[in-house]
Amino acid sequence: MKRTTLSLIAVATALAAVTGFAALTAPDGSAAPEAKAPTTLPVERSSLLCPAPSSSEVAETDYVSYTPAAGSSATGSAAPAAKAELKAAASAATPGGTTAKKPGAAKAPATVSQPGKPVAAEANGPTAPALTGAATGGLAPGWTVQQTTVVTAGGARGLLGVACGAPDTDFWFPAASTAKERQDYVHLTNPDDSAAVADIQLYGPEGELKSQLTEGIPVPAHSSVPVLLSTLTGQAPTADLTVHVTTRSGRVGAVVGAADDKLGSDWLPASADPAGTAVLPGIPADATSVRLVAYAPGENDAELKIQLVGETGTIVPASAQSLHVKSGMTASVDLPDLTRGETGSLLLTPSDPKKSTPFVAALRVTRGKGDKQEVAFIPATAAIGARATVADNRAAGSTLSLAAPGEAAQVKITASAGTGGGTPVSKTVTVKAGTTAKVTDLVPAGLKGSYALTVERVSGGPVHASRLLAVPEDGIPMFTVQSLVDDRGTVEVPTAKQDLGVLDD
What we know:
Number of helices: 1
Helix content: under 10%
Strand order of the largest sheet: 6-16-12-18-19
Largest sheet: 5 strands, mixed
């Protein structure tokens, strides 16, 4: 017999990936050496999906694709095998039997070739398809793609912004609607080589809506399916709706496109997972209307305390101090005169700290008045963790909001080079406890084109962040708000003190 040495890290990694935990023994029956704490390593592959931008003939869409430089604002080179690119997804039949729009020959974002250097592309008109793609090697950690569309006329008029999302199996969308003045579509995009099967549940103020064609929706491989919510139920239109998307098999990207006849249009991203507290960051200082929508998916009601985390401190709004959310029902409340000229973030906590009930939430925010109004959505957003990035920032009109609802925190913010040139710049910002800080003046030197903003938490408590992009058009204060989520650029890998010897014939 001969003895072959097998690296314990390979064994532990494989077993942990399958079971989450493994007990190892040596060949003589003795216990294996105690493993060290997991090692944090950069991810080697990231997947993103972008929905079809618009059905409008006058839609103009910009894409910006970006991977942060590792560990600093300086640029670096990627490994030779690294790649980050998006490709057009095919369109599939909708659940109602109608045919989705045919994909056009729109140009996808240029392939990122170097961390720290954003690239851009355009796709105009109604034929721009949904996109699926992946980044590998040194371009995978923190890969971000922003899709921004301007529609100047028609029922979908507005500035629509969305950070292309990762595929998953479970999504919650409070603040959707089947009201007569709304056209809300949930876009399901499958990035994989096999078909996915999705279910959609709708919950209104009286509970689950009786629905049709919502179970077992097929999403073919590398395809996108838009589903008009109003076609899924025969019940009366509902202004405040919570949509729950799950998959029976496979995984999808999901986002809701909302268009209001009077208020314009934007994308509604998924809320953070159900939790007993929530932070909704980055309400603009000049918001003329703010509507909170929440849903409690469990068996218990949620009694929520409403607080505004503003630039100077945290207060309880006079317009609404609490919200009662019945189990299985969508609740909503208007918050007039909420910000009073200050950028702010909404903090929702249990009215009784001893009775915490998981819930999901989102805000519908309006700027402007009369026929010059524009709408955007802010979902409950998890803290950024180690690092988060938002792309397609402009020299004017970009506002970064940083909320520290608990302890004070320090973050490092880096503005990348521009898509057409410029020099990266960084600064460290302290966010006082119980406040929302805004950053509007961090722009790359010699900027040409648009740029990315990367936020890294340095110290202190959790930080929740969002970016407002304003592009006024004909007196309409067009805007969109994107939440910053942790970029999941690293993964924990088990390590061991020594190799484990195994016998081999």
